[in-house]
């Protein structure tokens, strides 16, 4: 530190001085003398230093005292001055109040200064108004707006000055307002031009984008002026006439109206003028909306300030307008196909890639965040209306289809045949084509509706088949009243039978195509019902056709087992030819039913033949006649066997056994040794255990050589015999009744 350095210097100096004093040895004796001398010097220096210090302190005190003295004098002066000012101020209060006139003059002066400033503007107002009007008419909107702003500015400043000077003076305010009256009209004229551009903005943006940009700039400037004026009103309470103009808000309102009109205006046709009016209307809407939004996104957005958020606002407007339009359409009295068109458009098309889901609109348009165009409630109402309309339509269509089909049944020309040569009518095709169309339509909307429509179709099909069955029955009954009519009864009955098979196949394919596997169970019972009804129709049809055959065979069957027959009539030959002839037509019946027909015909021929035996129309007189009759029976059984083998060709049906019954009966009749009769009869009974006593009695009567006792003995003995029928044997005798003999006949 500095102190230590000073100490070191002092010591060094002292050492030098001592060294100077003690250079010779003799000087050492004087050390004490030197020490005293140095002590005296030191004491003298210290005394001098003390005096100096005291002197400087005294000087400082003197200066301080003199300053305090001065300050005291100053304070006294200030105090005196304040007293004087106070006195003057009290005297001048009255004078200030008398200066109001001066103040008013100042205000007036400032107003006059503003008026002078505005004078050149004021005098040129009419001229500027004319120029502005010309600019508007020439479409130079930006320049027109600049001049309009200048005019408004002059008017507003004058009015503001007037307001500040005398806010209650309405007369002067009105004077200014009237003088600048044309400005309001100019503003409206300009606005009219702006709104025309805004209305056509989607077209203008392509043809004359600069014009649109000008319009947007004008609107934006007006917005800023509006804000300024509103702020000033908060501070001063003054706002010029016609403010705020709210042109931005008006612009959006006009856009909104334009969008609504654009969508409503797309309906060119009505149902009366065009059945497809709605489809066309919706397609035009889809196209317009997509085009407009693409233009809005690619061109319009960049012409507007970002805070206008123009694309999203437009998107919203279109969505709202569409929603309104769809609700209006939903409230109309729509037909079934129109309901489907509407729902399909609302639920599917709207959010599809053909419209809002278009890739060029993303990411701005997110279809998942778009609200539904119509509420679920309205959708449900439309769907239920659709289902009820469809139900009555289907009932009507089915009824009409059946009526049309019935008209065909009485035609004099044969029905059409399919590619395999089977007779058919157009009924199944018409019915299932109608079902298909409605299912395809329902599928456009959703799975659920498709399933509902399928259930409806099958349910109606079920009722329809019952009517079909009744109509086929009536057809048969009408024909029986006069067998000559209708001319093609057999062919049309065959077509009805074949239709049953087609219906069965169509139901299966319809379910396979339109029904999910898990729904299969809910329908199985109605399907079983329909199959059962179809089988009944086909079965009744087949049986009525066989009735036809046997009505024609009746005279020939009546000839069997008569004298004429024994003499050599050709009844069986005619029977075979007639059956074969009918079966040429029956070849047009589809396989499963044709097979049943052949078996049934075979069976009925044999039954009728045995019935002829049991009618006891002949009783052989002798062994010769019995032999002849029995051989004829065996020969005829062979004819039948040959015929039915031919008819059943390829069906692999074993019906040989039926003709065996005729042969077995012939053997009983042919037998020459009466003692073996019991054995022969018991063999017959064991083979065909449904033979009753009256059958045996009738058989023995035809044989003609058994007494009553013998008959009785045989019958009584037979009851104990065992039976061993063929396991495939279908009882045949139980269908055959034997006429009972009247008393006179017994007595003969």
Short description:
This is Exocyst complex component 3. It is built from 26 helices and no strands.
Structural write-up:
- 76% of the residues lie in helices and 0% in strands.
- α3 runs parallel beside α6 and α19 runs parallel beside α21.
- The chain has 4 domains: 211 residues, no CATH class; 124 residues, no CATH class; 165 residues, Orthogonal Bundle (Tetracycline Repressor, domain 2); 158 residues, Tetracycline Repressor, domain 2.
- The chain is an all-alpha fold.
- The longest helix has 67 residues.
- The N and C termini lie far apart (182 Å).
- It is found in: Cell projection, Growth cone; Cytoplasm, Perinuclear region; Golgi apparatus; Midbody.
- Pfam families: Sec6.
- One of its GO terms (molecular function) is SNARE binding.
- Keywords: Acetylation, Cell projection, Cytoplasm, Exocytosis, Golgi apparatus, Protein transport, Transport.
- Belongs to the SEC6 family.
Keywords:
748 residues; single chain; EXOC3/Sec6_C; mainly alpha; disordered C terminus; 26 helices; Tetracycline Repressor, domain 2; Exocyst complex component 3; 4 domains
User: How would you describe the shape?
Assistant: elongated
Mean pLDDT: 88
Main beta sheet strand tally, sense and closure? none
* Computed Rg: 64 Å
Helix and strand string, N-terminal first?
HHHHHHHHHHHHHHHHHHHHHHHHHH
Structural class: mainly alpha
Number of helices: 26
Number of domains: 4
Function: Component of the exocyst complex involved in the docking of exocytic vesicles with fusion sites on the plasma membrane.
Organism: Bucco capensis (collared puffbird)
Protein name: Exocyst complex component 3
Pfam families: Sec6
């Amino acid at each position: 530190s500095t102190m230590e350095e000073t100490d070191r210097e002092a010591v060094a100096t002292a050492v030098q001085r001592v060294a100077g004093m003690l250079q010779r040895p003799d000087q050492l004796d004087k050390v004490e003398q030197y020490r005293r001398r140095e002590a005296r010097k030191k004491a003298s220096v210290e005394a001098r230093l003390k005096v100096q210090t005291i002197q400087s302190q005294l000087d400082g005190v003197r200066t301080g005292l003199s300053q305090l003295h001065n300050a005291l004098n100053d304070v006294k002066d200030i105090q005196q001055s304040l007293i004087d000012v106070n006195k003057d101020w009290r005297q001048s209060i009255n004078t200030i109040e008398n200066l109001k006139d001066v103040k008013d003059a100042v205000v007036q002066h400032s107003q006059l200064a503003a008026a002078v400033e505005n004078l050149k503007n004021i005098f040129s107002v009419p001229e500027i108004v004319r120029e502005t009007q010309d600019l508007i008419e020439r479409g130079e909107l930006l320049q027109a707006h600049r001049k309009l702003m200048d005019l408004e500015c002059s008017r507003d400043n004058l009015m503001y000055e007037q307001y500040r000077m005398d806010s209650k003076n309405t007369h002067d305010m009105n004077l200014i307002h009237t003088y600048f009256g044309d400005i309001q009209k100019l503003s409206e004229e300009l606005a009219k031009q702006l709104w025309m551009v805004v209305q056509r903005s989607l077209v203008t943006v392509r043809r004359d984008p600069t014009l649109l940009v000008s319009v947007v700039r004008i609107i934006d400037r007006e917005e800023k002026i509006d804000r300024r004026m509103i702020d000033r009103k908060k501070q001063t309470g003054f706002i010029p006439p016609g403010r705020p103009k709210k042109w931005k808000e008006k612009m959006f309102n006009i856009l909104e109206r334009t969008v609504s009109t654009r969508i409503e205006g797309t309906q060119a046709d009505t149902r009366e003028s065009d059945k497809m009016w709605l489809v066309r209307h919706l397609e035009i809407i889809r196209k317009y909306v997509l085009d407009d939004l693409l233009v809005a996104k690619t061109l319009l957005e960049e012409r507007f300030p970002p805070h206008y958020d123009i694309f999203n606002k437009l998107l919203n407007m279109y969505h709202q307008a569409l929603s309104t339009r769809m609700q209006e359409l939903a409230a109309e009295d729509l037909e079934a196909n129109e309901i489907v068109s509407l729902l399909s458009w609302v639920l599917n098309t709207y959010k599809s890639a053909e419209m809002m889901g278009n890739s060029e609109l993303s990411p701005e348009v997110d279809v998942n965040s778009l609200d539904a165009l119509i509420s679920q409630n309205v959708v449900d109402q439309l769907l239920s209306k659709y289902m009820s309309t469809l139900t009555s339509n289907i009932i009507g269509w089915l009824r009409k289809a059946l009526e049309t089909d019935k008209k065909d049944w009485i035609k004099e020309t044969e029905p059409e045949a399919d590619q395999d040569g089977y007779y058919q009518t157009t009924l199944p095709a018409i019915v299932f084509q109608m079902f298909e169309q409605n299912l395809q339509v329902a599928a456009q909307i959703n799975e659920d509706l498709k399933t509902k429509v399928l259930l409806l179709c099958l349910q109606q099909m079920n009722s329809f088949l019952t009517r079909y069955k009744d109509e086929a029955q009536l057809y048969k009954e009408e024909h029986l009243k006069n067998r000559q009519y209708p001319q093609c009864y057999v062919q049309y009955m065959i077509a009805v039978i074949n239709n049953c098979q087609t219906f069965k196949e169509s139901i299966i394919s319809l379910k396979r195509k339109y029904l999910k596997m898990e729904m299969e169970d809910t329908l199985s019972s109605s399907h079983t019902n329909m199959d059962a009804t179809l089988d009944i129709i086909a079965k009744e049809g087949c049986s009525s056709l066989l009735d036809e055959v046997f009505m024609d065979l009746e005279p020939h069957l009546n000839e069997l087992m008569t004298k004429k027959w024994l003499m050599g009539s050709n009844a069986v030959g005619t029977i075979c030819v007639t059956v074969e002839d009918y079966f040429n037509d029956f070849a047009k019946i589809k396989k499963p039913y044709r097979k049943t027909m052949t078996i049934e015909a075979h069976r009925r021929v044999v039954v009728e033949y045995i019935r002829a035996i049991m009618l006891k129309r002949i009783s052989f007189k002798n062994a010769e006649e019995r032999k002849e009759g029995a051989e004829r029976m065996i020969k005829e059984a062979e004819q039948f066997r040959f015929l039915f083998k031919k008819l059943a060709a390829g069906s692999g049906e074993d019906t040989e056994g039926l003709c065996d019954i005729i042969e077995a009966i012939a053997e009983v009749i042919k037998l020459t040794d009466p003692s073996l009769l019991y054995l022969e009869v018991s063999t017959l009974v064991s083979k065909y255990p449904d033979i009753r006593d009256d059958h045996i009695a009738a058989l023995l009567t035809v044989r003609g050589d058994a007494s009553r006792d013998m008959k009785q003995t045989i019958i009584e003995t037979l009851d104990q015999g065992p039976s061993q029928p063929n396991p495939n044997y279908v009882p045949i005798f139980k269908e055959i009744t034997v006429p009972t003999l009247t008393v006179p006949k017994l007595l003969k």
